[in-house]
Amino acid sequence: MTTAIAFRQVSRHYGTVRAVDAVDLEIAEGEFFAMLGPSGSGKTTCLRLIAGFERPTAGEVEIFDKPSGAVPPYRRPVNTVFQDYALFPHLNVRDNVAYGLMIAGVARAERHRAAEEALSMVALPGYAARKPAALSGGQRQRVALARALVNKPKVLLLDEPLGALDLKLREQMQVELKSLQRQLGITFVFVTHDQSEALSMADRVAVFNEGQIQQIGCPQDIYDRPNTPFVADFVGSSNVLPPEMVERLTGKRASASLRPEALRLQADGYAAQVIEKAFLGAVTRLTLDIDGQKLAMLLPKGEEVPEKAATVHIGWDEDALHLMEQRDA
Amino acid sequence: MHSDRASLGLKIAAAAGLLFMHLPILLIFVYAFTTEDKSYQWPPPGYTLKWFSVTWERPDVWEALSLSLRVAAISTVVALVLGTLCAAAVSRTRFFGREAISLLVILPIALPGIITGISLRSAFNLADIPFSFWTIVLGHATFCVVVVYNNAVARFRRTSGSLVEASMDLGANMFQTFRHVILPNIATALLAGGMLAFALSFDEVIVTTFTAGQQQTLPIWMLEELVRPRQRPVTNVVAMVVVLVTFLPILGAYYLTRGTEMVAGQGK
């Protein structure tokens, strides 16, 4: 398996701020890779390091096993879909999409044909003559995608590309992006702060916090077996149990994650008090107090919802409690 | 409630205001056709077109006009280059003292022309630079740069910075990015700024008085003509030409920048 992108102890510091701090990372060719994290966690800086807009303070970013060092953005086999799309306002859609080919010296007729092809690939045929200002957010997003893909990059970088779209459109684009990636076989590196987006689309996910990668793994692993309390909390808002409590429950001293949906009402279980309840549609979220520790619990529709301040008994499957290595929470 | 029709009082006020501003200019135009050439007599005793041919044959008019046009053209070019570079630096990068530089660039236009004139004159004297065509250009460039800078900086602010990154991401080097992305996005602003700079330079008197040697730009020539009258209406004919030469670029700049708010920096 070829490695498309590799980070070797890459750091990017701004003064005393460690935007990216000693990151090691390998992304395989053809992979749909998500960089997930809260804003300011370093994920976008990592993307910009790949694109070449930023240079590492230390370490090396390798693109297809070649050190990228001083290679300027315009000589890298990667293209970017920008968060604000960055469509050229003075060019119409066709010329926007054909821009990379125009720079590469492709003849007018040929690049216009390629642009039309790319536009129909993103389901936007017939818009070629319009200016970006005359498009909706979702359409601009597709143009940005076509403009990057028309150059047949080896790696496509996507910086929160769905962030500005409404929920419905976002879900639709998630499906389309995923099938586009399968169809083209291009490596996608996708930056997002939305954990459900990362989990649903990516082959593998890297969870970032404060410039460091907390965990890399397939979505299932990240969700079921978070390495650190941060990952447990950020991905799926898991309950993080403190070591003292885990020691009482299991005899081992470590933090543990316990998914809210793994909790169930159980007559012979632990006694807990309902502090709050919120109806979320398909489920009801209860906030419970168990020996001074707050726990979130998701109650599926159909189960009887206890009153506030009532005492309930809860339990969980033994393997639902996932012990974590102790790292900075 | 808004009424579609202005009240009578408002109409009269507007008309009076416009007359106050433009009647004197119309008078200048009228006197270009008068048959009386010693004093400005109202009403003109008769009308003639002969002053146009007289003006046409006066070499001093042509010299002054040509000098003014050359000075304005070169000052505008200098202003376009310096103003654009300055605007790009101030709006694209953050550095210590950025706001101060921004203020210092704008200052010459706020400063009375006489101050600029005096300071340039003493600077030229100190540096032993003889007064010439180029000292006039330098004097004019001080305020022309401001006009271009102001226009360019406003456009740069409205142009999303990621456009440059997008262009480079798509394979364009610095030069290609400038040519295909930056220039088209700031072109109308530069044109507008350049035309304004040209117009400002063309009718400048005060700074020119201090930085010109024996040479006469058109406005200076006109001033001299008024002091010692000789075929007075010639001055009026030239004044008409100046009004037209100044008015056309400004009108052009107005049309070029109208409705370009959407051109750059449309975001999401």
TrEMBL record, chain A:
Annotated Pfam families: ABC_tran, TOBE_2
Ranges for domain ABC transporter: 5-235
Q: Does the keyword Ligase apply?
A: no
* Cross-referenced PROSITE patterns: ABC_TRANSPORTER_1, ABC_TRANSPORTER_2
Q: Which UniProt keywords apply?
A: ATP-binding, Nucleotide-binding, Transport
Recorded GO MF terms = ATP binding; ATP hydrolysis activity; transmembrane transporter activity
SMART domains, per this entry?
A: AAA
> Gene3D superfamilies in the record, alphabetically?
2.40.50.100, P-loop containing nucleotide triphosphate hydrolases
Q: Which InterPro entries match?
A: AAA+_ATPase, ABC_SmlMolc_Importer, ABC_transporter-like_ATP-bd, ABC_transporter-like_CS, Mo/tungstate-bd_C_term_dom, P-loop_NTPase, Transp-assoc_OB_typ2
Query: What GO terms fall under cellular component here?
Result: ATP-binding cassette (ABC) transporter complex
According to UniProt, the name of this protein is ABC transporter ATP-binding protein
Taxonomic source organism:
Aquicoccus porphyridii
Its taxonomic placement starts with: Bacteria, Pseudomonadati, Pseudomonadota, Alphaproteobacteria, Rhodobacterales
From TrEMBL, chain B:
Q: Which UniProt keywords apply?
A: Cell membrane, Membrane, Transmembrane, Transmembrane helix, Transport
PROSITE patterns in UniProt: ABC_TM1
Q: Which GO BP terms apply? A: transmembrane transport
Membrane topology for this entry?
A: Multi-pass membrane protein
Instruction: Provide the protein's localization.
Output: Cell membrane
Q: Where is the signal peptide?
A: none
Taking every annotated instance into account, which residue ranges of this chain make up the domain ABC transmembrane type-1? 65-253
Membrane spanning segments where?
12-33, 67-88, 100-119, 131-149, 182-202, 237-256
**GO CC, alphabetical:** plasma membrane
Q: Decide whether keyword Isomerase is in the record.
A: no
PANTHER family this protein is in? PUTRESCINE TRANSPORT SYSTEM PERMEASE PROTEIN POTI (PTHR43848)
Q: Which family is it part of?
A: Belongs to the binding-protein-dependent transport system permease family. CysTW subfamily.
Name of the protein: ABC transporter permease
The species is: Aquicoccus porphyridii
